[in-house]
Amino acid sequence: MPLELDSRVCGPVHVVTAKGRLVAGPECGQLEEVLNLDSRRHLKQVVLEVSGLNRLDSLGLGLIVRTAASLRRRNGDLRLANPAPIITQLLELTRVAAILSSYPNEEAAILSFMGNEPAPAASNCTGCCVMIVDQSLDFAAFVATLLAQHSCEVKLASLMSDAKILLRFQPVDTILIGSGPMPTTNMALALQSVAPKAKILALDTALHTRDADEAAAEILQLLRSHNIIPARA
Fold first, then answer.
1. Total structural domains in the chain?
2. Residue partners of 60: CB distance under 8 A and separation at least 6
3. How far is it, in rounded angstroms, from Cα 163 to Cα 109?
4. Who's near 42: CB < 8 A, 6+ residues apart?
């Protein structure tokens, strides 16, 4: 089975799911390209979910170890989630298990980066604190860049499950819901139960395909109408 990769973000954590075989050749190149996204997005914490890997050769394992070492030099790390028995045996046989942290599931690996204690219910942000929940990393990055210009502290989550994890540790004032596998209303209700004081707003999913200036104007207008960012002087 060729390598299949899925990539998303959970706040400061880049979560990559790998299925199939990770061997010398195009497969290693695929994973390296995806892992390099952490540098371009200034992410230093990576969870590699490997329950679906059925083959891992020396170059594939070397890529994982090299990436972990590179991240640690930047005060980050790479941690494995849910390794299949065949992968666990390989890690132990090669003694890589001593230098790569593994966790029984994806959530445990993500939480390992979050610290031990949940944050207080009240947000510690000094200004506008916004979480963007959207499956598109590129769209979320666009919105984050836009809001940063308006002095907003921005958190990114690709999935609702990731958003719920983040909200336990990083409370926000506002949640913007974009595209996702669930209806927006259901997502809003689920997130409101975790963050009852947050203002939850839905973004038009058509914004993904609009010109950047039009999308930016609509997002800013939405936030201004709810007094999240100041109106134009």
1. 2
2. 21, 22, 23, 24, 27, 28, 31
3. 15
4. none
Q: The dihedral of CA 86, 28, 18, 13: what is its sign?
A: positive
pLDDT at 42: 67
Average pLDDT for residues 203-220, to the nearest whole number? 91
The distance from CA 28 to its chain's CA centroid, rounded to whole angstroms, is 22
DSSP letter for 118, please.
P
Other Cβ atoms less than 10 A from the Cβ of 53: the count is: 23
* Tens-digit pLDDT profile for residues 95-134: 988 999 999 999 999 999 987 656 555 455 556 899 999 9
Question: Among the three residues 53, 77, 111, which one is the final residue of a domain in this structure?
Answer: 111
Range of the domain at 42: 4-111
Q: In angstroms, rounded to a whole number, what is the distance separating the alpha carbons of residues 56 and 88?
A: 11
The distance between the two most distant Cα atoms of the chain, rounded to a whole number of Å, is 65
At residue 192, φ and ψ (nearest 5 deg) are -65, -30
